[in-house]
Design brief:
289 residues, Rossmann fold, two-stranded antiparallel ribbon, single chain, 5-stranded parallel beta sheet, 2 domains, 9 strands, elongated, alpha/beta
Length: 289
């Protein structure tokens, strides 16, 4: 990537954040996101530095939330989160009114929600599983996601304009039960970054940094197991849940005190719905452990 093609202000932001990325290696290693390639981190930094919204797209357990948390730390900005579901409503986004007491008098106060807080404070807003929300709910924040960066609070009629530094990071798992396709108007408001599973040496590093497992041979076997699971998912033999990196890390931790195959059973196999998939994963585990 030729950073000289970017505006000078963005070049400076990018260089500062890349330096911060180096300075924050301990933070990343202690639970942050270890990207499969530097390009993912650079692209996200550039987009956010330019005031773009980013949409992290990838399978469950690939590290999208950790990626968002790491970006928040690198920019040194707080992050307010919205967890989408069919029950998501305007109050969940903007806030709600409640009764309070001032000098023994009952009053009505407004408690700001994540969208309001993030906009006023110039921090990040993280919208998790954005395609789980009802299609009629998200248009409320269309103005937040485009050049206007403005919204009228339906509960107070206050016009809220985002402070400098405000940014939006969303995450999406496509094809899961309960999800709906994003409409084009919403999708066009984001820069999309595909977040794949990490593999090989980077996964080995993540296991070393994020779990208490120290047995090098076991770690090597878990890395191989993960690769086999990801391959099976790509071939349509397993659902994406089976290859969750989050579940694999749980198995690594449990294997310190439990036999590895039992750790895999509790962390991965028992989460699967189909007996065929359970048997497939157990057979893979049998060949390695």
């Amino acid at each position: 990537m030729n950073t000289n093609q970017l505006p000078k202000a963005v070049q400076e932001l990018l260089e500062n954040n890349k330096k911060q990325a180096t300075d924050h290696q301990e933070l990343i290693r202690s639970g942050g996101y270890l990207p499969p390639s530097e390009e993912l981190l650079v692209d996200a930094i550039v987009a956010l530095s330019m005031g773009k919204n980013i949409l992290l797209k990838g399978p469950t357990g690939a590290g999208k939330t950790k990626f968002a948390e790491t970006l928040s730390s690198l920019f040194e900005r707080p992050m307010y989160s919205v967890n989408c579901s069919v029950d998501l409503d305007a109050e969940s986004l903007m806030g709600f009114k409640t009764l309070a007491y001032e000098e023994e008098k009952q009053t009505i106060q407004f408690v700001p929600g994540p969208v309001t807080n993030a906009m006023k404070q110039g921090s990040f807003l993280y919208i998790d599983e954005i395609n789980m929300a009802k299609p009629e709910t998200l248009p409320l924040i269309n103005g937040v996601l485009d050049y206007r960066r403005t919204i009228t609070n339906p509960f107070t009629n206050e016009i809220v304009t985002a402070a400098e530094g405000f940014g939006v990071i969303a995450a999406i798992n496509e094809g899961y039960i309960g999800t709906v396709p994003l409409n084009e108007a919403l999708k066009n408001r984001f820069i999309v970054i595909d977040v794949p599973y990490i593999q090989g040496e980077q996964l080995e590093q993540l296991i070393n940094d994020s779990t208490n497992l120290t047995d090098k041979q076991l770690i090597s076997h878990f890395v191989t197991l993960s690769n086999d699971l990801i391959t099976a998912v790509s071939q349509g033999k397993l659902s994406e849940d089976a290859a969750s990196i989050r579940a694999l890390l749980d198995a690594c931790d449990l294997s310190i005190y439990l036999p590895p195959k039992r750790a895999i059973l509790r962390s991965i196999v028992d989460k699967l719905e189909e007996d065929r998939e359970k048997s497939f994963v157990e057979n893979l585990a049998d060949t390695l452990f």
